[in-house]
Amino acid sequence: KHDVLTTIVVFGASGDLAKKKTYPALFHLYQQGLLPRRTRILGYARTQMERDSFTSRVTSFFKKDTPPADIEGFLAICGYVSGKYDVAEDFIRLREEIDQQEHAMAKRAEDERVHIYYLALPPSVFVSVGTQIRTNVYDGSCTNRVVIEKPFGHDLESSRKLSKDISALFAEDEIYRIDHYLGKEMVKNILALRFANVFYEAVWNRHYISNVQITFKEPFGTEGRGGYFDEFGIIRDVMQNHLLQVLSIVAMHQPQSLRSEDIRDRKTEVLRRILPIQLEDTLLGQYVGTRDGSKPGYKDDDTVPKGSMTPTFAQCVLHVDNDRWRGVPWVIKAGKALDEAKMVIRIQFKDMPNALFPNLARNELVLQVSPKEAVYIKTIVKEPGLSTNLAMSELDLSYHKRYQDVKIPDAYATLILDVLNGDHSNFVRSDELDEAWRIFTPLLHQIDSDQVIPLPYEYGSRGPKGVDEFATERAGYKLTSR
Ligand code: BG6
């Protein structure tokens, strides 16, 4: 068997994403012994840095109590090249550095080589960097993989333009579009839960499920990130991507196999069955400061333009129009500066048609994605003891209790491992992306053209007044919500 030589180039190595996610994830894989035996990691950015300042910078990305030997070992496989993002000579130098690194790994003619280009960069330079890579670095004799991350455009048209430009440079199977929610433990668990247990799939349809609620809540506001956020708003920032991706996995039919294209085919099918979301099915909010002045409002953030009408909260009710789901409302909700940090999927079952026990509360299956992974089923039991009353209880699989010894990896670590393995299952295919934009683009355009004013809600609250009533009204019946 031929040995594999792997080179990972992190573009934007001095930026925020590289610091917070890419390098820590690579380091985690290194510590776990999961990087291929012969791997080199090259950072690329504009900042001129000597080796010393580069290594102390990378070291600063890691936790204080990290064993120094681990850091040292990791740094030994890391290098750095400084260069501009549009200068051919700089990319030629990068190419030479890659060659040198491969020689340092004792390259032999028969070795299989993998080049991974991780663009931890703003999308405005994707195409220019992609073009430079394609012309001056890309090597047709090895496997090339390009990793990019949202925002992929800001509507259907701009996303298509970006896809077209990128597909002129790389083949679809060379492209890995990150949606980091697909790397989260509980999101990856949905497939197993649904298709490896006999009882879930049996009730996973409109005959038994009343509604599905997918909720993303953050307890903090933009906090200085308003410049980026204001251009996008909550719908583009988390709904069109993270929430819709999760929805498509909850809703999809069983794939033919676990091959990535089979999975992505099924997810895309779901998205195709969702009509564009209507403004009347959408509630928008924007947070204001707390009454006591302790927390600022969105517009108090200096990085947010005065008079901004960008939503920091949105709730939409949508339908998946196929035989499995017809008539079942899906309520997706996302907001910043709310009362808690939580990402949760709640599958609420229909009322129990039963004369024996009237007026029962509904069963509910809850998949908690964060902060603490958990699966629980709200189940009615007889109150233990001498009582014959019924009580709502839970079949509870909380990971921190059941899997105490397992350290749940960061989403980026699992996704980079997938890239190393050439597995696309947890990455967004171009047709999925296109469908996701199709669903939201008319709404986004209407919000802009009608200058829809978001409803105010107080920082730290549950959202604008009337969110639950709104969902009830749009869904056509009362949803139990929390
Ligand atoms: C990002 C959004 O994609 O996801 C952020 O741009 C958001 O606004 C973040 O805070 C949430 O990710 P996580 O992993 O912290 O839930």
Automatic annotation (TrEMBL):
Q: Name one GO biological process term.
A: glucose metabolic process
Entry's InterPro entries? Answer: G6P_DH (IPR001282), G6P_DH_AS (IPR019796), G6P_DH_C (IPR022675), G6P_DH_NAD-bd (IPR022674), NAD(P)-bd_dom_sf (IPR036291)
Domain Glucose-6-phosphate dehydrogenase NAD-binding intervals: 9-189
Pfam families for this protein: G6PD_C, G6PD_N
- Which pathway does this chain act in? Carbohydrate degradation; pentose phosphate pathway; D-ribulose 5-phosphate from D-glucose 6-phosphate (oxidative stage): step 1/3
GO MF terms, alphabetically ordered: glucose-6-phosphate dehydrogenase activity; NADP binding
Q: Which domain of life is it from?
A: Eukaryota
The record places domain Glucose-6-phosphate dehydrogenase C-terminal at 191-474
What is one GO cellular-component annotation here? cytosol
Any idea of its EC number? 1.1.1.49
Q: What does this protein do?
A: Catalyzes the rate-limiting step of the oxidative pentose-phosphate pathway, which represents a route for the dissimilation of carbohydrates besides glycolysis.
Cross-referenced PANTHER family: GLUCOSE-6-PHOSPHATE 1-DEHYDROGENASE (PTHR23429:SF0), GLUCOSE-6-PHOSPHATE 1-DEHYDROGENASE G6PD (PTHR23429)
Name the protein family: Belongs to the glucose-6-phosphate dehydrogenase family.
Q: What is this protein called?
A: Glucose-6-phosphate 1-dehydrogenase
Please name the taxonomic classification of the source.
Answer: Eukaryota, Fungi, Fungi incertae sedis, Zoopagomycota, Kickxellomycotina
Coding gene? ZWF1_1
